[in-house]
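FW: tagging you since you asked about this chain on Friday. Here's the raw sequence from the shared folder, copied in full. Didn't touch anything.
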Amino acid sequence: MKKVFSFVMGILFLFASFDVEAKSEPKPKPGIESVTAPSAVLVDANSGKVLYEKNSHEARMCASITKVMTLLLVFDAIYDGRLKLDDEVLISSHAASMDGSNVFLEAGEKMSVNDLIKSVVIVSANDAAVALAECTYESEEKFVSKMNERAKILNMNDTVFKNCNGLDQEGHVSSAYDIAIMSRELMKHEQIFSYTSIWMDYLRNGKTQLVSTNKLLKTYPGITGLKTGTTDGAGCCMVATANRNKMSLISVVLGCNDSKARFSDSAIILNYGFENFFVVPLKFDKSKLTPLKIVAGMKDDLQLDTKIPQGVLLSKDSERKIKTTIEVPEMIDAPVKSGQVVGKVVYSLVDEVLDEGEIFATEDVERMSFGKIFSIVLRAFTKM
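HL: got it, structure written out here
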């Protein structure tokens, strides 16, 4: 009996050992090929360069990702001084009637622009989005017209907006690529990140709690935003932004089967970017800039200066020998204004142009004329 017991215990110990060994082995991270979203894209926020794509131009319903454009127009209005964060907005019956995710606005209630933005960003409130649209351009209809105008300016060729909050509507579509474009534009308003980084907040003096729909705020290192969206027609969608190692990336996934897949796919795509690309700092020796000859100017030479990009994004398996080329004309006609761009610094790798910097004039130079020459000669003569 003892022998049987010892044998059984030995077998159990052996299986337990295998289990411990199996658990001690680190699980490999899922690769980019495991992305389940039917449409996705990864873009470098600084340059707009596409680093990964999967059916990125496929027009699809995009749910509350629509609100990225809504927020862009609102922040444009704040930047222009047409709207202030402490402005009180009178809620209309139309805004209060919105279905889906909301903060239960009531017709006749007043709420600040700041609190409405928080409601849109943190809990994706449809009623708050309409209230912002109405206070920015008088009505949701006019606001949506402006959304489409802005989309056209940004060359968002796969996009048509029919409302400001992303509720399913026939013909209301965008693409992963277009969403990355408008997200990149919204990110230029850096104030947006003071909202997208919030996990929990309150409205109405603490009576209404807001908890972020972006679960990556709690799990993904470097996450900065940006927007989630879910409807029956669009599935689970997300545009995720993150910063690491001087890199800023934008990931978009559309049509995921569930919320878990949305966050998982976003993390996989961002990981792919951070693990396979890096930023190379750019430098320029200003001693290589020689004065530019001026034709018919009150001076013979023009002093120059440069404004160059901080760095460029390269794949980690690429060559690092970046070539720097100065492109300026042999001479320039007067007049010249200070700050006028007269040439460029081109950074390239093999035959690919990576980025460009500006070469500009540091001073005004007037065009030579008989009157100016006569005046100079006269002043010189009177000093003799």
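FW: The longest strand covers residues 235-244.
HL: agreed, and Residues 1-24 have pLDDT under 50 and may be disordered.
FW: great, closing this out.
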